[in-house]
Each structure stands twice: as structure tokens, then as C-alpha cells.
Amino acid sequence: MKQAIVYHEDYNKYDLGTDHPLIGDKPRKIMSYLKEKNLLSDFQVFTPKKATEADLLKVHAPTYVEHIKKLSQTGGWLSEDTPAPKGIFEVASLATGGSMCAGEKLFEGFQVAINPLGGFHHASKGHSSGFCFFNDIAVTIEYLRKNHHLKRFMIIDVDVHHGNGTQDIYIDDRTVLNLSFHQDGRTLYPGTGGVEILGRDDAAGYTINLPFPPGTGGTSYFNAFKEIVPPVTRQFKPDIILYQSGVDTHHVDPLADLNLTYQSYYHLAKQVAELSKETCEKLLVLLGGGYNSSACIKSYYNVFCGLLGKKEYLDEEDIPDTDPAAVQHVVTQLKQSLSEYWAL
Ligand SMILES: [Zn+2]
To answer: Which of 115, 166, 187, 337 has the most CB atoms lying inside 10 A of its own CB?
Structure first.
């Protein structure tokens, strides 16, 4: 198996300010940690280029792209939680170009390709918030659809926040199976991603949401993952898997209330890598959210260990669910609704 990672020093300019939860130099920290742990040598490193405006316009409205450009010249706010510093248009275009570059590597002999500054799932066609400017997931899908004639895209999004932007974009598109595991929107930004949202019209069954109650631990999370994701993936037969591997589900993450532990990220990534191997041998990994500066780096490290199927990885003591019955209830509910579309 060959693995690629894309990285640019300018990634670290995706910085929304010192009093903002986003860790501006996270990409550099991830790369240093991989180096320290002797894992970087397992990857070939590539330097991405900015996505062009034409690329962005395959997904985003012209007025929205203009709006980001203007904000980027003056500085300002995209939304209440998302400051738009000067130069953000260039940096966000570079982050998007990074996901496209990683996607392209999957057609150049690599089976796994990673963009550490990717997974901006809150960006919709014409509006955004949640620290996201352009939806690199969708821009990459549209790029691959056009340039490599792919027909079936599978998104596995395990960031703690619901991928509402991606859902808005693909809610009625049955060529994109969009699966999001997240904390229940009634208790966390962005408030969407209810279990009953399953896709529209003939794309019903192609949007899958599993909203976990606060306090869900890694064991039940992973059990639910194993019950749902492998059978659906095998039946859908994707041409590519896009894995938004956010680690803000970790129990010390300051923005959310799920209780996953280091080993969770290892097991999830390992399972996703196995599914990719079994179906399409094309796995694009976008690292997504993570807001505790020390825990998120270790969690991402375990994502890498899982992808590579390493024997050794970090672990810590499991945390049990605070309300096991509530977790079981929502998992059962989703499985029941999905049984109309997929054999589980
Ligand atoms: Zn998140």
C-alpha cells in the first residue's frame, strides 16, 4: 500500500485569532508529531496548489465566492463564530486545493491520501459558519466526478459536529452516500443532523445521520459504527471513500461532549481503511475538527496508526456511556429507518 500526505507551510495561516478555538498551527504540529514518532517516512509528501475560482464555483454560488474574496481583502466576520482574517480567501483556497491534490494522488498509484487541513463540512453552497469557508469535500467530489468520471462517492464523517453544509449540497443526490456520526444537534452546533433526515426524493436512504447523546463513550460509538457502516459501504460499492476523521469527539475536547478515547480513532480508521481496501482502494482522509491542542494531535496520530494498520498505538481508559439506553435507542431507530434502503 502507498500513502500520500499533502502539506504546505501556508496551511498554518488558517488562523482565526489567538482567542479563537481553532488551532492555527495544527497542520505543522501534526507533521512534527508524525516525524517524532517516525511515521512520516511511511508517506510521500506533496505540496498542494490553491483551488481555482472555477473549482470553487462547481459547488459554491458566485455571489458567495465574491463575498469571501471581499472579506479577505478587508478582514471581517463570515458569521458570529467565524472571523474572516485578511488573506483567508487564499488560505481557504489552498486548503481546498489540498483535498483536490490528495484526491488526485489516488489516481497516481496511492491507495490512501491525507489532507491535514481538510473536511470543512459546514460550508454550504451560498453560506457558511463553523470555522469553514469552502466545502473542500464537495469541491473535491465535483473535481473527481469530472476528471476521473467517478460515479459513486461515499462520505464517512465522524467529526463531532454534523456536516450540515455537505448535507445541504448532496441531500438529493444519490451518487453521494453521505454518512455523518455526530453529537445530537439539540445539544450542539450546528443543530441539524436528526436521525430522521435520510435524503430527498430518489436519494432517500443516501443521507445517513447518527446523532449521539452527550456522554456517549467510544465502545458504543464503535459498535454502532460496525453495525451500520460496513454493510452499507459494501452494498453501495463506492468508487472512493472520503473520510472526515475529526477528533473533536474526544472526551477532553473543549467544544463538545462525547467521550471517545485515543483507541477509538485507531479502530475507526482501521475499519475505514479495511473497507476501502475491500471496495475501491481509494481513501481520501480529511482530518477535520479537534480543539484540545495536545489530545487532538495524539488522536490524529492514532488515525494514522489505524490507516497504516500499525500494531502499536496510544490508548487510555475507556469511558462508559452516561446514558446507555439513550444511545441504544437512537442506534435502533436509525437501523429501523435504514432497513427500508439497506440490508443491515
Ligand atoms: Zn467539528
So the answer is: 115
Q: How far is CA 309 from CA 269, 282, 305, in A?
A: 9, 16, 6
Tell me the C-alpha distance between 158 and 13, whole Å: 25
| d(CA 256, ligand 1 centre) in Å | 8
Q: What is the pLDDT of residues 52-67, one digit of tens each?
A: 999 999 999 999 999 9
Question: What is the percent of the chain with per-residue pLDDT over 70, rounded to a whole number?
Answer: 100
Q: Which residues lie near ion ligand 1 (Cβ < 5 Å)?
A: 159, 161, 246, 248, 289
Q: Are 281 and 105 in contact (CB under 8 A)?
A: no
Which residue, chain included where needed, has cell 469553514? Answer: 132
Structure confidence by residue, pLDDT tens digits, 43-52: 999 999 999 9
- Residues whose CB falls within 8 Å of the CB of residue 172, separated by 6 or more in sequence, listed in order: 199, 200, 201, 202, 203
Whether this model's pTM surpasses 0.70: yes
Q: Distance, CA 179 to ligand 1 centroid (Å)?
A: 15
Query: Which residues does residue 5 pair with via DSSP β-bridges, in sequence order?
Result: 45, 114
* pLDDT value, residue 164: 98
Residues ≥6 apart with Cβ < 8 Å to 328: 220
β-bridge mates for residue 153, sequence order: 176, 240
Distance 288 CA to ligand 1 centre (A): 7
**How far does residue 119's CA lie from ligand 1's centre (Å)?**
9
Return the ∠ at Cα 300 (arms to 264 and 285), rounded to 5°.
95
Q: What would the grid cell of residue 148 be? A: 476521473
- Clarify whether 122 is annotated catalytic: yes
Give 253 Cα–ligand 1 centroid separation in angstroms: 10
